[in-house]
Design a protein that fits this description.
alpha/beta, Aspartate Aminotransferase, domain 1, Aspartate Aminotransferase, domain 2, 2 domains, eight-stranded mixed sheet, four-stranded antiparallel sheet
Length: 426
C-alpha cells in the first residue's frame, strides 16, 4: 500500500464515525467473511501511524512520524543488571502468575508518586498495574461505554484512544483546543446538551498538539465532570517529559469524582518494551477494573513489574528522567528554531513545554496527506493530522515527533520539510 492510499484509507475510515448517514462498511478482503465477525469489528482498523512506519521501514528516512522514544536513551545496562539480579534472587515468583492488581511493592511505589503529584488520597488500593497506559485506557472504556454512547474529547486527540473508543462503538463530541487546552466553556455546554458517557482528556503535553491545559481550565473541567457525574478518563502518559515550567496537578485531583480514572506509564521514562503502566481510581472502581483485567490477560508480567520496581527503588528513575529531559528539550529547540528560520508566516505550529510532539497548521489549500508522498520521496516522513480527528477533518495539519531522531537528523529533516512545504504553499 502506498503512502497516499494508506492515509486516504485512514481518513475514509475515520469519517465513518460521525453519523449513521456515513456508516458505510469497510470492504473486507475476499478471503474473510466479515458477516461472521461482531459488528464492532467494522470500526476496528489498523493505525495509520503503524502502517506508515511499516511502509517506510525498508527505506532510509528521517522520521518525524512515530510516537517512539529514542532507543539510544534506554537504560539498557541498568535493566540488564536488575533483570539478572531479580531472576537470581526472586526468579520463581518473578516467572509465576501474580495478582491482577499488580506487584504490591510497585503499587505502593506508584501510590507514593501519585500523592506527590497531587492525588493526596492515593494508596496501593487506588492503583492497578497495567500493560502500558494503553491497556488502562482500554479497561476504562470497557467499563464505562456501551454501544452508541458519546465520548467528549479534545479535537484533535490521541489516535490509539480513538481506536479504543471505536472498538466499543462510541460516538464523539469534539471540543476544540487553544493554547490553554480544551475549551471548557464549550465542553460545559456540550455536557449539558449531549450528556456524554465519558470525558477523555490529555492535559499535559497533549498528543498530538503538545498543548498543556491551564490550571483554571483543569479546575473547571474537574468540577464539571464531578457535578454531572460523568466519568473522567485522564491520560497523563507524558507527565515526566516536562522541559520548562512547574508541573500542574492532575485534573483528577481537583474535584472529588468517584468515576475518575487517571492513567500513567513507565514507557516514556524507562522503556516501552517493558509494557508497564498504571491507573489510579477509587478502590471500589479499581476492584471492578481488576476483574476486567483478569478477563483480558490475567495480570501484567510479573518479571517486568519487579524490574521496574527495582529500577525505581534504587533511585534510578529520577536521573533517567533528567537525562531524557535534557536530550529531548535540545531536540525540541532544534526543530522549533529550524521551522522559525525557514517557514516564517507560511505556517504556524505549537511550542510544547514538554512531551514529544509539535502540531503544525498549513494554509487551507495545502493537503498534508496528499503532500506526504513527495516528502517521503525527498527523505522524510510525518503524520498527516486527519488521523487525529474523529471525522477526518483538517487536512492542512500534521504532527511532528521531535524525540525519535538526534539533533543533527532533526535539523536535516526540518530543512527538507520546510523546502517541501514552501514549494507546496507557493
Amino acid at each position: 500500500m502506498g503512502l497516499a492510499s494508506t492515509f486516504a484509507g485512514a481518513a475514509w475510515q475515520r469519517c465513518t464515525r460521525w453519523g449513521s448517514d456515513l456508516q458505510l462498511p469497510i470492504q473486507p478482503p475476499a478471503i474473510l467473511d466479515c458477516s461472521s465477525l461482531a459488528r464492532r469489528m467494522r470500526r476496528v482498523t489498523a493505525s495509520a501511524i503503524m502502517e506508515l512506519i511499516k511502509t517506510t521501514a525498508g527505506g532510509r528516512y528521517i522520521s518525524f512520524a512515530s510516537g517512539l522514544p529514542d532507543p539510544a536513551l534506554f537504560p539498557i545496562e541498568a535493566l540488564a543488571e536488575i533483570t539478572q539480579d531479580t531472576l537470581a534472587k526472586d526468579g520463581r515468583a518473578a516467572l509465576q502468575y501474580g495478582p491482577a492488581e499488580g506487584y504490591p511493592p510497585l503499587r505502593a511505589w506508584v501510590a507514593d508518586t501519585l500523592r506527590a503529584r497531587g492525588l493526596s488520597d492515593a494508596t496501593p488500593d487506588h492503583v492497578l498495574i497495567t500493560h502500558g497506559s494503553q491497556q488502562a485506557l482500554d479497561l476504562a472504556a470497557r467499563a464505562f461505554l456501551d454501544p452508541e454512547d458519546t465520548v467528549l474529547l479534545e479535537t484533535p486527540s490521541y489516535l490509539a484512544a480513538l481506536q479504543i473508543f471505536d472498538s466499543f462503538e462510541a460516538r464523539y463530541t469534539g471540543v476544540p483546543l487553544d493554547n490553554d487546552g480544551m475549551d471548557v466553556a464549550r465542553a460545559e455546554e456540550l455536557v449539558r446538551t449531549r450528556r456524554p458517557k465519558l470525558i477523555y482528556t490529555l492535559p499535559d503535553f497533549q498528543n498530538p498538539t503538545g498543548i498543556t491545559q491551564s490550571l483554571a481550565r483543569r479546575q473547571r473541567l474537574a468540577e464539571l465532570a464531578a457535578e454531572h457525574r460523568v466519568p473522567l478518563l485522564e491520560d497523563d502518559a507524558y507527565y515526566d517529559l516536562r522541559y520548562e515550567g512547574a508541573p500542574l496537578p492532575p485534573v483528577t485531583a481537583l474535584a472529588r469524582n468517584p468515576l475518575a480514572v487517571y492513567t500513567g506509564t513507565f514507557s516514556k521514562s524507562i522503556a516501552p518494551g517493558l509494557r508497564v503502566g498504571y491507573l489510579y481510581a477509587q478502590p471500589e472502581l479499581v476492584k471492578r477494573l481488576a476483574h476486567l483485567k483478569q478477563i483480558t490477560d490475567l495480570q501484567a508480567g510479573s518479571l517486568n513489574q519487579r524490574v521496574v520496581f527495582r529500577f525505581c527503588d534504587r533511585d534510578l528513575l529520577a536521573p533517567q528522567i533528567q537525562r531524557l529531559r535534557c536530550a529531548y528539550a535540545a531536540r525540541r529547540d532544534a526543530l522549533l528554531e529550524a521551522l522559525a528560520g525557514s517557514l516564517k508566516s507560511k505556517a504556524h505550529w505549537t511550542r510544547p513545554a514538554g512531551g514529544m510532539f509539535v502540531w503544525m497548521t498549513l494554509p487551507e489549500h495545502v493537503d498534508a496527506a496528499a503532500l506526504l508522498p513527495e516528502a517521503t520521496r525527498r527523505g522524510i516522513v510525518y503524520v498527516p493530522g486527519t488521523s487525529f480527528h474523529p471525522g477526518g477533518e483538517h487536512r492542512n495539519t500534521l504532527r511532528l515527533n521531535f524525540v525519535s531522531e538526534g539533533e543533527e537528523a532533526i535539523c536535516a529533516g526540518a530543512a527538507i520539510l520546510c523546502e517541501t512545504l514552501n514549494d507546496a504553499v507557493a
